[in-house]
């Protein structure tokens, strides 16, 4: 057996974003030895980009809020395909998780009487997002990493895991390489937590960082775990569209929460024209009421700009397709108009949305305190992911846990803004807790040396190949997903995508990279490509299977919601001979008390 640098821990956490760090903190506090692996530097994981805030029913700004309302909002947003137990735990535990973060030193904006300030966000009935300006993710990461380091976590920065290792049915570690030197490392662990984030890089236009190549989903799939809800990819309505170099970069929903409005080229607030019946009772039907809502009037209903993301994104697409878009193919998002309503509006905007102000000023030459922004939909978030148990976050594979964006269940068919950061805290904590318990009950497993040698050969193959550069296939795949499995889908186009993806799969086996193993970004891309192909195929297969429109999935050939599809989640897994297996997993009946909450909040 070749000699590998070997590391032994009780719990191995793959990913140093909010979910991974929260899991690592919890496991470490339980007294077990914990390692965290990240592809980037500590503090740079994608969570750092989160802007708007953490959704938690603290009831600091509106005392009508409670876990019950948050639960009902989350279920309605997810079109009732959510794992209701996860939605319940999330709504109940998020406030305590935010207070815990505060007690570890996180700073938040404050109400006049010194409590954590909360802002409005799409789909949330009351102001619910705890935030610090529009840099909440940075504060979360900073706090968790400080806290984790003091607990003695071992951190492996700029490492990539290429496979999970199993002893029989159980996961017993991971195999990967350090990106700087290209050397292989063996990580043995009694329990492994996946916290690798999402898949946005499978699409051409995305708000996601380079790390979002779906690694955790592909690792779990190959290890035998089920992937659930893969058809539900969230397209955020407001990404930058101009200049081309920043196309897709996120424009936080906080802009709309603080009074920003969407207009087409005729100056019309088109969102008033399409309020879905499910939300009609909670949505303002005139501009005046919408404005009052953003200013904290408890008797006002929210403006239609704050409807769920899937709906707003499709309305923008319609405006553009019907010729009412902005010059660069989007619509206008205007917050500068609030100068007609409040004194010192420019200062107010800069204080509430400092990153947005700088982003537009520096990247597009636009002063958002004076002029509107141009925005359009961007691939943003993956509702689907690794199927987990609600209480423990354990996957179908013993010893393997998953939390955060790479796990599925909480959000159903559509995630509400702010519900991801709270998801990371609530379920990161649970994953860490249960992984530590599992580790205490098990010993280290056996690793098969043949398997390691085989994985090393597979990983190094691109150096021997003479095929195309990985980027060529990666770009082509992103175009395919954007055009054929994007915001609006049809069977014909998705079948075409599936055929093309099979071609890319073959070509990916022959991609070649020049040079050596030391910080070779071409090699990294060649390995990421395998994961992008796996997740793209699963998204397409699940989207084909769901012959209806619901939440983030919009089918032009089945444009309405179909009750026949309301009672199950679609799960894909790897069959014994490597084939893709797809099943409809019935959603267990909801307890009466939760049903009643939903009924009361309608
Ligand atoms: C611009 C932007 C703004 C957002 N704003 C908000 C917001 O205000 N509120 C909200 O709730 N949500 C927001 N979101 C969504 C939210 O930020 C993410 O869903 C969340 O941060 C994901 O956290 P995570 O811990 O699951 O993953 P991440 O933070 O992405 O961490 C993933 C980690 O896994 C590592 N990793 C991946 N693959 C491997 C591998 N093969 N080997 C080793 N390590 C690996 C990565 O290096 C990284 O450390 C926003 C998203 C974007 C893009």
Which helices and strands appear, and what pairs or packs with what?
Elements: E1 5-14, H1 18-29, E2 34-38, E3 54-55, H2 67-77, H3 84-103, E4 118-119, E5 129-130, H4 136-151, E6 154-157, E7 159-167, E8 170-178, E9 184-194, H5 215-222, E10 227-228, E11 233-240, H6 254-257, E12 261-263, H7 287-294, H8 309-321, E13 331-334, H9 345-352, H10 354-364, E14 373-382, E15 385-386, E16 400-402, H11 419-441, H12 449-464, H13 470-484, H14 491-508, H15 521-545, E17 568-574, E18 580-586, H16 592-600
The site of flavin-adenine dinucleotide has 43 residues, from helix 1, strand 2, helix 4, strand 7 and helix 5.
In short:
This protein is an alpha+beta fold and 602 residues long.
Provide a descriptive summary of the structure in words.
The longest helix is centred in the C-terminal third of the chain and has 25 residues, at 521-545. The mean pLDDT is 96. This protein is α+β, with helices and mostly antiparallel strands and 602 residues long. The chain has helices at 18-29, 67-77, 84-103, 136-151, 215-222, 254-257, 287-294, 309-321, 345-352, 354-364, 419-441, 449-464, 470-484, 491-508, 521-545, 592-600, and strands at residues 5-14, 34-38, 54-55, 118-119, 129-130, 154-157, 159-167, 170-178, 184-194, 227-228, 233-240, 261-263, 331-334, 373-382, 385-386, 400-402, 568-574, 580-586. A hairpin with a 5-residue loop joins β17 (568-574) and β18 (580-586). α13 (470-484) runs parallel beside α15. It is globular, with a radius of gyration of 23 Å. Residues 14-20, 37-40, 45-47, 49-53, 136-137, 159-161, 195-197, 207-208, 211, 215-216, 250, 381, 404-406, 417-421, 424 line the site of flavin-adenine dinucleotide.
């Amino acid at each position: 057996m070749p000699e590998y640098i070997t590391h032994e821990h009780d719990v191995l956490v793959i990913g140093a974003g909010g979910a991974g760090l929260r899991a690592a903190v919890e496991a470490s506090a339980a007294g077990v030895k914990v390692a965290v692996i990240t592809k980037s530097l500590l503090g740079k994981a994608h969570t750092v980009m989160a802007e708007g805030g953490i959704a938690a029913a603290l009831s600091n700004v509106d005392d009508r809020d409670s876990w019950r309302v948050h639960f009902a909002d989350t279920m309605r947003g997810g079109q009732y395909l959510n794992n209701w137990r996860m939605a319940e735990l999330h709504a109940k535990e998020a406030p305590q998780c935010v207070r815990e973060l505060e007690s570890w030193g996180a700073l938040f904006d404050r109400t006049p009487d010194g409590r954590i300030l909360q802002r409005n966000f799409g789909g949330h009935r009351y102001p619910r997002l705890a935030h610090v300006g529009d840099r909440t993710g940075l504060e979360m990461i900073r706090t968790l990493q400080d806290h984790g380091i003091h607990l003695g976590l071992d951190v492996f920065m700029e490492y990539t895991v290429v496979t999970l290792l199993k002893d029989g049915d159980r996961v017993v570690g991971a195999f990967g390489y350090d990106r700087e030197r290209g050397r292989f490392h063996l990580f043995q662990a009694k329990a492994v937590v996946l916290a690798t984030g999402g898949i946005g890089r499978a699409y051409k236009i995305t708000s996601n960082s380079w790390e979002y190549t779906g690694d955790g989903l592909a690792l779990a799939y190959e290890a035998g775990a089920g992937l659930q809800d893969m058809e539900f990819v969230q397209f955020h309505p407001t990404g930058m569209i101009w200049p081309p170099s920043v196309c897709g970069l996120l424009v936080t929903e906080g802009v709309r929460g603080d009074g920003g409005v969407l207009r087409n080229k005729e100056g019309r607030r088109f969102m008033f024209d399409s309020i879905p019946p499910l939300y009609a009772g909670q949505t303002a039907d005139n501009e005046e009421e919408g404005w009052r809502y953003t200013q904290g009037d408890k008797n006002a209903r929210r403006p239609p700009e704050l409807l769920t993301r899937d709906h707003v994104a499709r309305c923008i697409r319609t405006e553009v397709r019907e010729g009412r878009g902005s010059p660069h193919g989007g619509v206008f998002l205007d917050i500068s108009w609030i100068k007609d309503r409040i004194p010192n509006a420019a200062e107010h905007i800069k204080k509430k949305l400092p990153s947005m102000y700088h982003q537009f000023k520096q990247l597009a030459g636009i002063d958002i305190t004076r002029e509107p922004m141009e925005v359009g939909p961007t691939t943003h978030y993956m509702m689907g992911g690794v199927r987990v148990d609600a209480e423990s976050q354990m996957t179908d594979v013993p010893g393997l846990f998953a939390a955060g964006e790479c796990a599925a269940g909480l959000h159903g068919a559509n995630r509400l803004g702010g519900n991801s950061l709270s998801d990371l805290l609530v379920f990161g904590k649970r994953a860490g807790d249960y992984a530590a318990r599992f580790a205490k009950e098990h010993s280290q497993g056996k690793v098969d040396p043949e398997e390691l040698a085989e994985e090393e050969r597979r990983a190094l193959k691109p150096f021997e190949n003479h095929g195309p550069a990985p980027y060529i296939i990666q770009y082509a795949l992103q175009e395919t997903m954007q055009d054929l499995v994007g915001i609006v889908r049809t069977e014909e186009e998705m079948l075409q995508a599936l055929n093309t993806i099979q071609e890319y799969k073959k070509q990916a086996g022959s991609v070649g990279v020049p040079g050596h193993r030391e910080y070779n970004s071409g090699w990294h891309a060649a390995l990421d490509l395998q994961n992008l192909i796996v997740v793209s195929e699963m998204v397409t297969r699940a989207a084909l299977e769901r012959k209806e429109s619901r939440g983030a999935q919009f089918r032009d050939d089945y444009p309405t919601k179909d009750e026949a599809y309301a009672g199950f989640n679609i799960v894909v897994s790897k069959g014994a001979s490597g084939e893709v297996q797809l099943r409809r997993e019935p959603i267990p009946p909801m307890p009466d008390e939760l049903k009643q909450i939903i009924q009361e909040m309608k």
